């Protein structure tokens, strides 16, 4: 291998002929040579030789190797720096544009939110103003309407009571608490109904205002269907067991005896106890069947003390009828009717309280 070296200082060309084989021989010879005792001199010679062997690429020219001037290297570095700067600028521009877009979107969202809030507030304000406006108008209308209703045009001048038979119209009007000359709208229908229904005979009440100044009271009365023997008088009751009146006058209705309601509870407006109400239902069935056989008007008393043996007394026929329980009533009443016809005017007892499919009804004359 041949290397041509030119030293710029001495401006001389020195050709170095280096052969690979010579290099190997030199290495072998060097290895054979023993090192000298003086280490310092050897060190110095080696370092000097190394200095001579080193190439100074800045001051020497190597054939086959092109040397790039420092200016070009610097220019290349500056160009690379500029390219890097441009690239960084582009990246910065891109990031800035992205950030700007994101900020713009955020600003748009904030603007929308702010506008929506403003719109909501404005809508709320409009709604509130509308509500206030309409409430003022309605309150004004209501006030004017109330003022109109309180005018003397609506003062009561007439009170009519309809559908009453037992209780007089004057009694119902006095119970109602309505007064002539009073404003028609000052009266409360609930209060009037409650006042009138204090009378036990009144079952229901309807109030109608006939403008401008009339009131009509429609009532439904309870009717006396039975009586209870109460001390030396009678307590009138209806089919529902309401005690309507206590009087010494005896009416032409059946008398119920053997009831269990306490004497202190026998008062107008009260009702029989549950046990007596259950027995009263059986009495109603007995009377229905008797009326169907045209003998109901002959019954003067019914004893309900024993639920298994209801007893009927006919004062007109002078007979006591042992009916048993309230079962098979139609068959029993047919036998009672037949015996009443057959034994007319004869005082005695009729027994239909047995199983009529096995045993016959019979009459026992009083001796």
Report what the structure shows.
Strand 10, helix 6 and strand 11 form a beta-alpha-beta unit. The strands form 3 sheets. The chain has a 9-stranded mixed sheet with strand order 9-8-7-10-11-12-13-14-15, covered by helices on one side. It is of the alpha/beta class and 367 residues long. Helices cover 43% and strands 21% of the residues.
- Radius of gyration, in Å, reads 66 Å
- How is the biggest beta sheet arranged? 9 strands, mixed
Order of helices and strands: EEHHEHEHHEEEEEEHEEEHEE
Give the spatial strand order of the biggest sheet: 9-8-7-10-11-12-13-14-15
Number-wise, the strands total 15
Low-pLDDT stretches = 1-22, 30-52
Structural class: alpha/beta
CA-CA gap between termini: 177 Å
Number of separate helices: 7
Supply the key terms.
367 residues, 43% helix, 9-stranded mixed beta sheet, 3-stranded antiparallel beta sheet, 7 helices, disordered N terminus, alpha/beta
């Amino acid at each position: 291998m041949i290397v041509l070296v030119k030293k710029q200082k001495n401006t001389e060309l020195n050709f170095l002929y280096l052969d690979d084989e010579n290099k190997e021989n030199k290495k072998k010879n060097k290895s054979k040579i023993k090192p000298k005792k003086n280490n310092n001199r050897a060190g110095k010679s080696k370092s000097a030789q190394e200095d001579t062997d080193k190439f100074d690429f800045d001051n020497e020219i190597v054939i086959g190797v092109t040397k790039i001037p420092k200016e070009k290297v610097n220019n290349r570095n500056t160009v690379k720096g500029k390219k890097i700067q441009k690239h960084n600028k582009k990246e910065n521009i891109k990031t800035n544009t992205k950030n700007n877009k994101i900020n713009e979107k955020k600003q748009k969202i904030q603007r929308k939110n702010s506008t929506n809030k403003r719109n909501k507030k404005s809508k709320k304000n409009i709604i509130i103003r509308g509500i206030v406006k309409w409430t003022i108008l309605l309150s004004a209308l209501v006030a004017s309407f109330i003022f109109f209703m309180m005018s003397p045009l609506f003062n009561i001048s007439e009170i009519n009571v309809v559908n009453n038979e037992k209780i007089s119209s004057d009694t119902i009007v006095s119970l109602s608490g309505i007064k002539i000359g009073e404003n028609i709208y000052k009266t409360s229908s609930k209060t009037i109904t409650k006042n009138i229904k204090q009378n036990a005979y009144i079952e229901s009440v309807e109030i109608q205002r006939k403008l401008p100044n009339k009131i009509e009271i429609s009532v439904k009365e309870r009717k006396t269907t039975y009586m209870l023997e109460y001390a030396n008088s009678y307590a009138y009751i209806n089919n529902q067991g309401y005690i309507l009146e206590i009087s010494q006058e005896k009416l032409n209705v059946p008398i119920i005896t053997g009831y269990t309601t306490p004497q202190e509870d026998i008062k107008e407006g009260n009702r029989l106890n549950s046990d007596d109400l259950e027995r009263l239902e059986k009495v109603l069935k007995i009377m229905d069947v008797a009326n169907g056989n045209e003998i109901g008007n002959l019954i003067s008393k019914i004893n309900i003390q024993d639920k298994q043996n209801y007893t009927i007394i006919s004062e007109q026929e002078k007979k006591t009828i042992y009916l048993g329980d309230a079962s098979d009533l139609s068959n029993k009443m047919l036998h009672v009717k037949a015996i009443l016809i057959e034994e007319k005017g004869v005082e005695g007892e009729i027994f239909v309280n047995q199983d009529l499919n096995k045993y016959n009804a019979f009459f026992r004359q009083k001796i």
